[in-house]
Specification:
It is a single chain. By secondary structure, this protein is of the alpha/beta class. It folds into two domains: 2-157 and 315-347, Quinone Oxidoreductase, Chain A, domain 1, CATH 3.90.180; 161-291, Rossmann fold. Helix content is 24%, strand content 27%. Strands 3, 4, 5, 10, 11, 18 and 19 form a seven-stranded mixed sheet that branches. Strands 14-13-12-15-16-17 form a six-stranded parallel sheet. Helix 4 (160-170) crosses helix 5 (186-197) and helix 4 (160-170) packs across helix 10 (297-310). The longest helix has 14 residues, at 297-310. The structure holds NADP nicotinamide-adenine-dinucleotide phosphate and zinc ion (ZN) (2 copies).
Amino acid sequence: MFPVKAYAALTPTSALVPFDFERRDLKEHDILLDIQYSGVCHSDLHQARDEWGGSIYPMVPGHEIVGRIAEVGKHVKKFKVGDTAGVGVMVDSCRVCKPCTDLTEQYCVEGMTGTYNGLERDKVTKAQGGYSTRIVTDERYVYNISDKLYLPGVAPLLCAGITTYSPLRYANVKPGDKVAVAGLGGLGHMAVKFAVSLGAEVTMLSTSKAKEADAKKLGAHHFVLSTDQAQMKKQESQFNVVVDCVSGNHDYAPYLKLLAVNGKLLVVGLPSEEPKLDPFQLVTNRRSIIGSMIGGSKETQEMLDYCAEKNIVADVEVIPMQYINEAYERMLKSDVKYRFVIDMASLK
Ligand code: NAP
Ligand code: ZN
Ligand code: ZN
């Protein structure tokens, strides 16, 4: 067993606190990762505060994990000690169903095993996440990371990155397409970077006027204040794709209206309340709504290699572990630039 230092939520309403526990021993295909950086996703906050229901405590959140391989099981092929590697939102799946054999394991028919807030497939070991000093994971769900990239900026690629890359690729976004991104947070800023890199003309839809200059720096060509009805009206029926990266409760109608004929609303934001849906907004322009959950093992590695080739990383604010509760409060105020990343050296 490996002793680990971490921060955990003990109840839905209390602040995260220091928490020591032990990771299990390595099995033949497992690696032990010394965690260097761990990103802070809004899904961590949703789950720590039980906003989706069914949360299990104590909970060590964190699923944007990068670090160095410290030990390998005897049948590990992809990694050796000292390699830089990453772990994302998923640490296991059934491995035999169609989605698993297609390497889209996030859609495993039995349900994927999350990095935290659940049990591993032995139904006994508690899965605990990346706000911790070390993690033990099967190499199938661990990714190679290029040493060319700024490591703190790589951590968010493991969730915010793949979650926005995957639907943009699925929707076949290409040069000349008009793409709008709603919500300039962790996911939204990666969606802007990827859509721009794919050659799209990108519009940021934000509730925060103060983010306009940053949106442009990230590569967005246009900025629309989504709370301004007149500005939104001018954008109606303009876009091939709108990516909904919004964490707070909201309706789809204002974003659906922006879609041109055959336009697609790519939903990745996961607020706790169900949105209202008006079928008239769907039949108009033959619009569709497509949900998307992270990405599978193959596409996650592809995205990381794409980022290494194009020199894409997240814009991050590196924080010590002890700042996590303030970081959550700032995230709730949409005050994120554009991902908090925990330096795990602060716990060692
Ligand atoms: P985040 O960094 O907190 O950013 C969310 C942004 O949404 C805010 O900065 C704000 O941007 C905007 N926003 C917040 N409340 C709003 C509201 N009521 N109406 C309109 N805009 C609002 O969050 P994140 O980490 O990017 O995560 C975003 C969502 O994606 C979360 O719900 C998370 O759970 C979900 N998620 C899904 C997946 C998946 O696999 N599908 C993976 C990861 C995360 P502006 O200031 O620009 O308005
Ligand atoms: Zn996430
Ligand atoms: Zn499966």
